[in-house]
Amino acid sequence: MAEQQPIIISGAGPVGLTLAEILTQQGIPVMVLEKSTQPSKEWRASTFHAGTLELLESTGLAKELLKLGIVADKVQYRDRTTGLYAEFDFGLLKEETKYPFRLQLPQSTYVKLLNERLHKSELAELCYGTEVTGMQQDEEGVTVTVQTAEGIKTLRTPYLLGADGARSTIRKLMGMPFEGYTLEERFLLVGTPVPFSNYLPDISYVNYISDPQEFLFILKVPEAWRLLYPIPPSVSDEEALSDQRIQGSLQRALQTTDQFPIVERMIYRVHQRVADQFYKGRAVLLGDAAHINSPMGGLGLNSGIHDAVDLGRRMVRIIQGQTDPEAELTMYSQVRRKVAIEYVKQITEKNTSVLTEKDPEKRVKMQLEYAEMANDPVRARSWLLRSGMIASVREQGIGNRPDTVATDSKQ
After folding, report:
1. Strands of 7-10's sheet in order across
2. Mapping DSSP to helix (H, G, I), strand (E, B) and coil, where does residue 294 land?
3. How far apart (Å, rounded) are the C-alpha atoms in residues 154 and 135?
């Protein structure tokens, strides 16, 4: 195994590095190409769902993440005016999973952990400051052209795996359509070490707050409390990022005149897009390169990690000659595309609609529906299984087949 050509992974974000970790643990050499000169320190996504922790358990990553993160055992839906209207308690899943909660920590912490682990592996080569500029496929593999500080280089690999984000070069080189839409408004994420519980004593670590003018998403990570909210199209990025406007948003959200130290500020463009197909020949897409969605639900990072686990186990079978490559990659594309559309897209769009509905009657009706669901243990359990991505993992068979890389935590 160690003498074979390495599998090239484009992108050293959480998805690409997860895939690298899975493959190297199975004795398959990898080369990870990243155009940035160092690992990303952006906090960005910050939720690890139960289904994700189950999939990462056999790699040892789940155990490490539990040492670093914060356990959020409840999710609240609130109205900015009338307060709490629905609370979902993950305790309903105690008989279903070892992880009846959402684990809160920034993706930068996860990236740092993966980098440290991969640097210790003789089978992993991490190439920062290396940008893919071209590729040429044939029946035996892929020739990849890259730009480095030393100049242009040519690399050879059996498979090129594209985990290079929403603006994926690999997807563009494949000529793969990326249909969907982009919201007109942007989202601004800010963080402060000041406890929001000082102002809203009964909030949980994860909160969705409805408001037709400026909805809010509040959550806790080890380093800070985070606030996500929309920026009107009329407001420029520069104005939105200004101290004055950020302080105003925090003060309105927490009903105070206090000033807050700001430890992060980042603007998101919000998209809902899915590639027509997740592979073409020996080039394969995963994570944001294959599908992107609104952050309402914390599903983007998690679904990307699920892609990595699913593709990782399939690549092991392919490299070991246990399966037909075309059939395996076709199944990967069908399964993961279905999840992106039927789980991720539906959940994020429903979360967004309940937060942003402008019609008062419709907004109250939707809030009552959530309240009734949260108060019904059977329906609440079903909602938690879907939102925690446990349902998608088990329905698609990623975590409970004997020939998979990751195994179900209940086995």
Report:
1. 124-128, 30-34, 7-10, 160-162, 283-285, 279-280
2. coil
3. 9
Other Cβ atoms within 10 Å of 131 Cβ, number: 16
Largest CA distance in the chain: 65
Listed residue (302, 320, 7) closest to 161, CA to CA: 7
- When pLDDT is averaged across residues 31-51 and rounded to a whole number, the result is 92
8 Å CB contact between 284 and 329: yes
Q: For 260, which DSSP code?
A: -
What is the distance between the alpha carbons of residues 321 and 340, in angstroms, rounded to a whole number? 28
Tell me the C-alpha distance between 142 and 136, whole Å: 6
Give the integer Cα–Cα distance in Å for 112 and 62.
14
Query: Positive or negative CA dihedral for 137, 141, 147, 150?
Result: negative
pLDDT of residue 324: 96
Q: In a 3-state reduction of DSSP, which class is residue 105?
A: coil
Phi then psi for residue 363, to 5 deg, are -65, -45
Please give the Cα distance from 153 to 147 (Å, whole number): 6
> In what helix (H) or strand (E) does residue 89 lie, and over which residues does it extend?
strand 83-89
**Two structure tokens written together for 223:** 């380093």
How long a stretch of residues is the chain? Answer: 411
Tokens, residue 338:
């279905």
- 129 sits in the region (left: phi over 0; alpha: psi -120 to 50; else beta) called left
Closest CA to 41 of 342, 302, 299, 266: 266
* Amino acid type, 209: I
Classify 145 in phi/psi space as left (phi over 0), alpha (psi -120 to 50) or beta. beta
Whether 400 has a pLDDT exceeding 60, the answer reads: no
Each residue of 253-271: pLDDT tens digit? Answer: 999 999 999 999 999 887 8
Strands (E), 223-379: 224-231, 264-275, 279-280, 283-285, 291-292
